[in-house]
Write a structure and sequence with these properties.
Elements: H1 2-22, E1 33-41, E2 46-51, H2 56-59, E3 62-68, E4 80-84, E5 95-100, E6 103-105, E7 108-111, E8 114-120, E9 126-131, E10 139-142, E11 148-153, E12 157-163, E13 170-175, E14 181-183, E15 189-195, E16 198-206, E17 210-218, E18 223-230
Parallel strand pairs: 1-18, 5-8, 7-13
Antiparallel strand pairs: 1-15, 2-3, 4-14, 4-16, 5-6, 8-11, 9-10, 9-12, 12-13, 16-17
Bound molecules: copper (II) ion (CU).
The site of copper (II) ion has 7 residues, from loops.
Length: about 230
């Protein structure tokens, strides 16, 4: 029995090494741990509403500017959680920011430096306008026939995105220096996988509430839970 298990282990190890050699994933992808962050905010949600009187067939008649979105158990949505100082290669997955219903979807998109696909699902004119310092600013019309524009952000930075046609449209592109990040869901949760073992400072950033940090230790094959409370 023990012998058979030993043989199995040897095969698994060889197979494992082969996988490492073939797939150039992020550094530390093998033997990494997971961070599960729960971001909360005890204060009230902040949603500004305004009447819409243009493109109402696509935009509706009322727009909501969601500045602070709080879900169940005080969970804060749209916070960017990242692991400061973690080293790893960028992910190949392409980031996408859609303009749908005259809203940016998702409201916050996080990506590693590189390309982002900006979509127009609305069949109306939008005009993307970014506010950045490290990257060149974009101020570009996207007519209804232009379904996708590919733009590049090469420097880490959090970029505010608006639309010059629809004043209420607001989104954020978080260009992160490493692939260890997540954006909190409606319950305030974000999961970051394949983090190389070690001690880190986890940072949560929110567009209205700023930054908070928390220390965490990541162990191989384990999930480290971290609770971060945002304050005004
Ligand atoms: Cu627009």
């Amino acid at each position: 029995m023990r012998k058979a298990f030993g043989a199995f282990l040897a095969i698994a190890l060889v197979a494992g090494v082969a996988v490492v050699a073939q797939r150039p994933g992020p550094a530390g992808a093998q033997g990494g741990g997971t961070i599960e962050a729960a971001v909360t905010y005890a204060g009230a949600a902040v949603v500004e509403k305004l009447k819409v009187n243009k493109d109402t067939e696509k935009c509706g008649t009322e727009a909501a500017i969601e500045k602070v979105v709080v879900g169940s158990n005080k969970g804060l949505a749209y916070a960017v959680v990242s692991v400061a100082g973690a080293k790893g290669a960028p992910t190949a997955k392409k980031a996408t920011l859609d303009q749908h219903g005259c809203k940016f979807v998702p409201h916050v998109v996080a990506m590693t430096p590189g390309e982002v696909e900006i979509k127009n699902s609305d069949d109306i004119l939008h005009n993307i306008h970014t506010y950045s310092t490290a990257n060149p600013s974009i101020n570009k019309a996207q007519p209804k026939f232009k379904k996708v524009m590919t733009e590049k952000f090469e420097k880490p930075e959090i970029i505010k995105v608006t639309c010059d046609v629809h004043s209420w449209m607001l989104g954020w592109i978080a260009v992160m220096p490493h692939p260890f990040f997540g954006v909190t869901d409606a319950s305030g949760l974000a999961k970051i996988e394949n983090v190389p073992p070690g001690k880190y400072t986890v940072e949560a950033w929110h567009e209205t509430l700023g930054k908070q940090t928390k220390e965490v230790e990541v162990k191989a094959g384990q999930t480290a839970k971290v609770a971060i409370e945002m304050k005004k």
